[in-house]
Amino acid sequence: MPAFASRYRFVCDAAGADILDAVARHGERVLHRNLFSSLLTVLVASLSLDAFRAREAAAPEAVAGYSVGQWTALYAAGVVDFEQLVGLIVERARAMDACFEETAGGMSAVIGVREEALERELASLRESGHAVFISNINCVGQYSIAGTLDALDRAEQRISGLRPKKLVRLPVSGAWHCPLLAEAEQRFAAVLARVRLASPRLPVADNVTGGWLPEAPDALRATLAAHLTRPVRWRDCVRTLIAAGSTRLVEVGFGKQLSRFGIFIDRQVEFSTTYD
């Protein structure tokens, strides 16, 4: 509890608000705000990670994180400490939110279609001037798309013709991990240029390429900035961990979604979670 209390106060000071109090007063829709959801994600994941390390005899040999969770992976690898982590998450969220102050964006989950067919429909829309992109490649047949709200409406109409198992608009405040965040990438790159990042003590799988994050400081900074405009290649991150010899992958933090993705990536590997 003391660790939670002190970290929670630090997070709220960085956010400029008591997040849980805001939820109590205004409801769960507050958590749809990028800044709040990002900060709570890294708070819970960092605490869960530290608790996992304290009780496990074996230390992690490599790490990966999904979307903003990649920053928790960097914390796990010793690239940033908790104070740096929170400060960078605040800067990241502000840069992202600024891109959608005038033109609203959003995301949709698409389940049960072929990636090639999905990309073909989105490419056709982009050729017609509608900004919509694959933003998350989670596992076979499980994707997210991001774009302007008008483009998403058009994309959902097209995708319905592919007969997906599920197509649902996500409760997020912007179009994350797509080229609409180009200005955010530049702004966040300037922030990262002023920050000292330690050399990773563990290999970190990279959402941008699906391979390993580079260790050279300049290349690492460039990749972390590009993370805002590139799709999250989670399927490839998991495959990279497995190819390196990982046989047990433990999901830390809130929820079990990444472990569920894992079942559709490789059923020969053990996926577990710290969340009950």
From TrEMBL:
Entry GO MF terms? [acyl-carrier-protein] S-malonyltransferase activity
Q: Which InterPro entries match?
A: Ac_transferase_dom_sf, Acyl_transferase_dom, Acyl_Trfase/lysoPLipase, Mal-CoA-ACP_Trans/PKS_FabD, Malonyl_transacylase_ACP-bd
Q: What is this protein called?
A: Malonyl-CoA:ACP transacylase (MAT) domain-containing protein
Give the matching SMART domains. Answer: PKS_AT
Chain segments annotated as coiled-coil in the UniProt record = none
Tell me which residues make up the Malonyl-CoA:ACP transacylase (MAT) domain.
Answer: 11-276
Q: Which organism is it from?
A: Burkholderia gladioli
BP GO terms, sorted = fatty acid biosynthetic process
- Single GO cellular component term: cytosol
